[in-house]
UniProtKB/TrEMBL annotation:
One of its GO terms (cellular component) is cytosol. Homodimer. The keyword Thylakoid does not apply. Belongs to the shikimate dehydrogenase family. The gene is aroE. Signal peptide: none annotated. Residues 123-191 form the Quinate/shikimate 5-dehydrogenase/glutamyl-tRNA reductase domain. Residues 6-88 form the Shikimate dehydrogenase substrate binding N-terminal domain. This is Shikimate dehydrogenase (NADP(+)). NADP(+) binds at D77, G127, A128, G129, G130, A131, N151, R152, T153, R154, A155, R156, L216, G239. The active site is at K65 (proton acceptor). It comes from Mesobaculum littorinae. It holds the Pfam family Shikimate_dh_N.
C-alpha cells in the first residue's frame, strides 16, 4: 500500500492529511497519507528512511521547505528558482524535490477567473516572503510584462529584483496604493488580513474594474482586501484554491490518479 505524508513542525494544523485522505476515499484508492512531525536535526535521516518504510513521496512544509533542497538528490528548475520545495517523490533510490506552489497559484487563477491573461498587463504583488517568490516565478514564466513589488521591508523586494531581473520593479510600501496603473493582476502575498494578524490597509481606490485580484490568505476565505476589491469592480479569487491545486501534482504522482478540486474538496480543506 503506497504511503505519503506531510513533513513539518508543527504539523498538527495541516489540512493536507484530510485533503489527501478525502481524495484517496473518493477515488477508491489504496494508500495512506499521514502527518509527520520532524525536527530540523532529524530531517535528513527521516527523509532517507521513508522510502524504506513504503513511502512513495511527501509534502514538505514549514520550517523545512528550504532545507530540503540540501537533502534532495534531484531538484526541479522551479524548486531551485523559488529556493524551496513542497513536494517530494521517492523513486529508484533517489529523492526528487519539486515546488508546486506556483502551479497551484496559476491554476487557481485560471479556474477562478476564466479568460485571465497574465501577459495582458503588469502584475502587482504585495509581500516579498516565500509565498511571493513562488508567485513571482510563476507569473514571470507565464509572460507577465512587469511585476510591481511592494513590501514593508524594502530590502527584501530589492533583493528579489536583483535575483529575478528588470521585469521586477520595486515600490516603497508607503506607495503600495500607487501601483495599479494598467495593472491586470493584483496579489496579496503578505500575511496581512489573516485571522489574528493586522488588517490589510493599502488603499485600493486606484484599482481598475475587471482587474483580477487574489489573496493568498484564506482564513478568512473572504478577506477585507478581496471584499474591497470586489466593491471596486475587480474579479476576485480566494486563496484556498492555491492550497488545493498545489496538492494535485503530488497526489497524482504518488497514487496514480488526478484528483478533482471541487466544493467537497474545498470543504474538507477548510475542516468542514
Ligand atoms: P511567507 O512565506 O508566507 O511569504 P514570510 O516570509 O514571513 O511568509 O512573509 C510574510 C510577508 O508578509 C512579508 O512580505 C512581510 O513583510 P516583511 O518582509 O516586511 O516582514 C509581510 N508582513 C507581515 N506582517 C506585516 C505587516 N504588519 N505589515 C506589512 N507587511 C507585513
Amino acid at each position: 500500500i503506497p504511503l505519503a505524508g506531510v513533513i513539518g513542525s508543527p504539523v498538527a494544523h495541516s489540512r493536507s492529511p484530510a485533503l489527501h485522505g478525502h481524495w484517496l476515499r473518493v477515488n477508491g484508492l489504496r494508500g495512506h497519507y499521514v502527518p509527520l512531525d520532524v525536527a530540523q536535526s532529524d530531517l535528513r535521516e527521516v527523509i532517507r528512511s521513508l522510502p524504506r518504510m513504503g513511502f512513495v513521496g511527501a509534502n514538505v512544509t514549514i520550517p523545512h521547505k528550504e532545507a530540503i533542497l540540501d537533502i534532495a538528490d534531484v531538484i526541479t528548475d522551479r524548486a531551485a528558482l523559488i529556493g524551496a520545495a513542497n513536494t517530494l517523490s521517492f523513486r529508484d533510490g533517489k529523492v526528487y524535490a519539486d515546488n508546486t506552489d506556483g502551479f497551484g497559484f496559476m491554476e487557481n487563477l485560471r479556474r477562478g477567473a476564466p479568460g485571465w491573461q497574465p501577459s495582458s498587463g503588469p502584475a502587482v504583488i504585495f509581500g516579498a516572503g516565500g509565498a511571493a517568490r513562488a508567485v513571482i516565478t510563476s507569473l514571470l514564466d507565464a509572460g507577465v510584462p512587469e511585476i510591481r513589488l511592494a513590501n514593508r521591508t524594502r530590502a527584501r523586494s530589492d533583493a528579489l529584483r536583483q535575483e529575478f531581473g528588470t521585469r521586477v520593479t520595486v515600490y516603497d510600501w508607503v506607495q503600495a496604493g500607487n501601483t495599479f496603473d494598467e495593472a491586470t493582476t493584483v496579489v496579496n502575498a503578505t500575511s496581512l488580513g489573516m485571522v489574528g494578524k493586522s488588517e490589510f490597509r493599502v488603499p485600493l481606490d486606484g484599482l481598475a474594474p475587471g482587474t483580477v485580484v487574489t489573496d493568498l490568505v484564506y482564513t478568512p476565505l473572504d478577506t477585507a482586501f478581496l471584499i474591497r476589491a470586489r466593491e471596486l469592480g475587480a474579479t476576485t479569487v480566494d486563496g484556498l484554491g492555491m492550497l488545493l491545486y498545489q496538492a494535485v501534482p503530488g497526489f497524482e504522482r504518488w497514487f496514480g490518479t488526478k484528483p478533482v478540486v471541487d466544493d467537497t474538496a474545498r470543504a474538507v480543506a477548510l475542516g468542514k
